[in-house]
Write a structure and sequence with these properties.
about 450 residues; mainly alpha; Cytochrome Bc1 Complex, Chain C; two-stranded antiparallel ribbon; about 65% helix; quinol-cytochrome-c reductase activity; heme; electron transport; Cytb/b6-like_sf
Length: about 450
Amino acid sequence: MAGEKVVETTGLLGWVDRRFPLTSLWKAHLSEYYAPKNFNFWYFFGSLALLVLVIQIVTGIFMVMHYKPDAALAFTSVEYIMREVPYGWIIRYMHSTGASMFFVVVYLHMLRGLFYGSYRKPRELVWIFGVAIFLCLMAEAFFGYLLPWGQMSFWGAQVIVNLFSAIPYVGPDLSIWIRGDFVVSDATLNRFFAFHVIAIPLVLIGLVAAHLIALHEVGSNNPDGVEIKEKKDANGRPLDGIPFHPYYSVHDLMGVVGFLIVFAAIMFFAPTMGGYFLEANNFLPADAFKTPPHIAPVWYFTPFYSMLRATTDEFTWVLVALALIFAVGLLFSKNLKGIWKIIFPVILVLVAVALRVYDAKFWGVVIMGGTVVILGFMPWLDHSPVKSIRYRPGWHKLVYAVFLINFVILGIIGTKAPSPVLNIISQVGTLIYLAFFLFMPIWSRLGTFKKVPDRVTFHPH
């Protein structure tokens, strides 16, 4: 910092510092990293996600010590861990509970980003890294879901991998390549094990590191959306900032304690959470000759699974109509000028044609993947003049509420057996989800916005 005297460390710490920037890293990312002083409880979930990642890695290491990635032995090895390994049941339940709790804290962490505009300039890259972490987390959960080799693991993997066969031209070969066989088999189990234990965790750790480095480079957002780096004192410290350590490191301990109480309560008293965390069918060994009456993914995938199931042949006609309406609207739009006035409508017309050329199953896969990927475009879809929901029009909050309720309803429908009524509801829900993002450039800048304060609003408590 400007005007501060640099104190050289001595002894063992000094010896390390001359060979590795330990003290400078500590200062840059903790003791001299200035965070806004108005963080609220929504800011617990970033550190909690890091905590759950550590829990998953540590418990995973102990699980791997006894697990057998073999189709003939996988299920019994999990039973062996549960029944014979000392405290193995605790390790297994910590890992299975941790998988669901990881998604709970990540969903809440992303929700906070939506509320307070944490994806806006200059944090676009922080948000993109976060979306990439979410995609990796989904892949990690999917690969790990097969490993217990229970009925739902086996048939869930069969259904999801078969989706890739809907991709034109390369789909059938791609699905065989992913499985390593014509059906889910020992080869599939081995490669999923390799991805779950080695490949995806390495990528995930790298992305988490990149996410934190990018965050600390531009600084944390806050509930007011005020950039604290713009106002500093004579020593270069943000006027509205406080050192992350010890203030927020201690502050986050309260969130950690509360989280661990909930985590322990689930783990010891309701590890299956009524079949949402661990399904009853997964306590039965995989049987290729006996299909469960209803195959559904774990709860954290169900909103996207609902959108996959919603994409029927009839529904693609609705998408065709919407694409053509968008094309006409862009053609007469005053915001588009030059060559873009032709390019974008032509692209939408081509999309409308493709919707009828290719199978509805393929478009279901596209929508399921696209509804996640579209999150990465949030920094460029949101045209609001303010970041935080605090200073947006009241009806913007209603839009967010509808989006969240719709997401929850889609998640509930995804756990149910398909029916004509539920299918219509999921189709409406899919349109609401897509409309939230596709119309965001329009609705996000409408209405009367409140004046954003020059300094953060903070009330000691």
